[in-house]
Amino acid sequence: MLSGKKVLVLGLAKSGQAAVELLDYLNADITINEYSPKEKILKYDEYIERGFEVVCGGHPDELFERDFDFVVRNPGINYHKPFLLRLKERGIPVYTEIELGYQYAKPQNYIAVTGTNGKTTTVTLIHEILKNANHKVHLAGNIGIPYCQVILENNLLEEGGHDIVLEMSNFQLLNIDKLKPHVSTVMNLTPDHLDYMASLNEYYASKMNIYMNQDENDYYIENIDDETLKDYLVKYPRKSQSITISLEHEADCMIKNDAIYYGTKEIIPLKDIKIVGKHNVQNMMIAIVSGILCHVDKKSISYTLKNFMGVEHRIEYVRALDGVKYYNDSKATNTDAAIIALKAFDKPVILLMGGYEKGLDLTEMSSYNSSISSLICFGDAGERFMKDMNHPHSYLVEHLEDAIFKAHEIANDGDIVLLSPSTSSFDEFGGYEERGRVFKKIVKEL
């Protein structure tokens, strides 16, 4: 299908490796460019043996003067880099691996979810609803499963009509060309990735790409509670039909009689929801609408919701010890996510906060000091966090492990210890998943 086409793959993380495999299956002429030296590329020798050109140890200028039919970019590579801008100037298309997969897979039913917070819980719940309804459904995208991998494992080059649930970061939405989901949503908009994007406006605008190719036969799930989102939906109009959700107002999916309703039908009483926090009620609303738009009956949706226990690293209950409950919210890599976690509890918590310094403003976060009984700051950003939070009961330690031991030392019967770091983990860990696993291991060994 791609015989004779020259394709450059930029970056060999999970998505890059999956793109290489799909491109090879399609008989493309593949060049790989990876910043790491060849000693750190696990499949270097294998790629050479398979006839791929592998350029590693940097991004040499001459590589970007060559003629490629298109480029597949790892989402983590900043699109402001000069070598990427040079490709754009030369008119060479740059895609992410989701767009690559979309262009070559048979037509599927796409449900695409973006937003600053809550994406992973929401797509996991949508996937559970569709799976329990016996749909052929696959989860992919920012959740850590490359779509190109899903395509090859499930023969989607030959078979259409599957449900594809996509979690999409703004990085993945920057290089969209043809992707056309049947159902899409921007869940919410709050500041994040200011170390990557040129401006907050650019970050918010990138999210709107999720519905850019939809038409009047498609659906957009609109959160009418988010004022910032309202403004951007006006700035970037959509053609799709709108289904509204709200925790506070009249909407297609709303709270009524202490239950979530879709239209006139009760879906689930609030008391039957096992995951904590109003934000998770909103996540469930998006999943309910997605399920209904994919023709799942309300009884089946209700069953899945009642049995959903949540997602790892998202306000995840770890254990109780001496009357103290420990929660892992390592996925809170920005302050808004941490604020959502604080709001999920009905009493002040001992908060573990810190990690990689990415320059996020703590003004709003510090306004929630009353929801924090004690603050323990750690990591690269720990000292600034403690200063800017200005909490009256603060501690500064070096590492996450030290923060856990300090929390254990000061906690009393009935307290809640919450890891909600408010920033990335790259000063000490390879990602939020590793940070969360380490937290849980240490807590279970206390």
Describe the structure.
This protein is α/β, with parallel strands linked by helices. It is 33% helix and 21% strand. The chain contains 16 helices and 20 strands. The strands form four sheets. The protein has a six-stranded parallel beta sheet with strand order 7-8-6-9-10-11, with helices on one face. Helix 1 links the parallel strand 1 and strand 2. It starts with 5 loop residues before the first strand and ends with a helix. The mean pLDDT is 93.
Provide the β-strand percentage band: 15-25%
Total of helices: 16
Strand line-up of the largest beta sheet: 7-8-6-9-10-11
Structural class: alpha/beta
- The count of DSSP E runs of length 2 or more, i.e. the number of strands, is 20
| Shape category | globular
Helix content: 25-40%
Alpha carbon gap, first and last residue: 56 Å
Largest sheet: 6 strands, parallel
Q: What integer is the average pLDDT?
A: 93
Radius of gyration over alpha carbons? 23 Å
Low-pLDDT ranges: none
Map the helices and strands.
Layout: E1 6-10, H1 14-25, E2 29-34, H2 44-49, E3 53-56, E4 70-73, H3 82-89, E5 94-95, H4 97-104, E6 109-114, H5 119-132, E7 137-141, H6 147-153, E8 163-167, H7 170-173, E9 183-186, H8 200-207, E10 219-223, H9 227-235, E11 241-245, E12 253-256, E13 259-262, E14 265-269, H10 278-293, H11 298-306, E15 316-321, E16 324-328, H12 335-343, E17 349-354, H13 363-366, E18 372-378, H14 382-389, E19 394-396, H15 400-410, E20 416-419, H16 432-445
Parallel strand pairs: 1-2, 1-4, 2-3, 4-5, 6-8, 6-9, 7-8, 9-10, 10-11, 16-20, 17-18, 17-20, 18-19
Antiparallel strand pairs: 12-13, 13-14, 15-16
